[in-house]
């Protein structure tokens, strides 16, 4: 018996390649093992974090900071100093003499800075559309509360009597805006709408 020489047209399998394939046999097996491992890991972690007890272990509880007490007469941390509607006569700002003229903005100042005062009229009260909403509102130098307390038509600040009221809005950073609202029966609008961005 004589050995026949290999046919030059038939591919060889000496390097681990299947006849007609371009990669070794172990590569598709390895890819399959990796894909199955990734799928198993995804299912495992999905089931593990679905359990609420496991999630609670990974979230650190928030510890509240101790705060120093506020000075006498000031609201405590997280509280608001609300005076409007308290029923006390000392809490209602007294009206000034009515300002005559038309609605307008008055600009004054000098080298130290510019101050603007907007004058407007209303029959009964005012609504504030001011940012930030935690800015403090003073009426005739009496603190009445924060902007957010008077920012909708359901929360109109009603003036106690006819006359002029100086409304000063002070932002937490110290910026101020001043408005003069005159409450009068012959005003064209029922409620003055004060809008500003501090």
Please give a quick description of this structure.
It is built from two helices and nine strands, in the order ααβββββββββ. It is α+β, with helices and mostly antiparallel strands and 198 residues long. A hairpin with a 5-residue loop joins strand 7 and strand 8.
Structural write-up:
There is one protein chain. The chain has 198 residues and is an alpha+beta fold. The chain has two domains: 26-58; 89-197, no CATH class. Helix content is 16%, strand content 29%. It has helices spanning 26-50, 52-58; strands spanning 104-110, 113-122, 125-131, 136-139, 142-146, 157-158, 163-170, 176-183, 191-197. The strands form two sheets. It has a six-stranded mixed β-sheet with strand order 1-2-8-7-4-5, with no helix packed on it. The chain has a three-stranded mixed β-sheet with strand order 6-3-9, with no helix packed on it. The longest helix has 25 residues, at 26-50. Residues 73-80 and 83-89 have low confidence and may be disordered.
Features:
alpha+beta; 2 domains; six-stranded mixed beta sheet; three-stranded mixed beta sheet
Order of strands across the widest beta sheet?
1-2-8-7-4-5
Task: Give Rg in angstroms.
Answer: 38 Å
Q: How many distinct folded domains?
A: 2
Number of strand segments: 9
How far apart are the first and last residues' alpha carbons, in Å? 105 Å
Number of helices: 2
Structural category is alpha+beta
**Residue fraction in strands:** 25-35%
Mean pLDDT: 75
How would you spell out the order of helices and strands? HHEEEEEEEEE
Low-confidence stretches: 73-80, 83-89
Helix coverage percent of residues?
10-25%
The outline comes out as rod-shaped
Report the major sheet.
6 strands, mixed
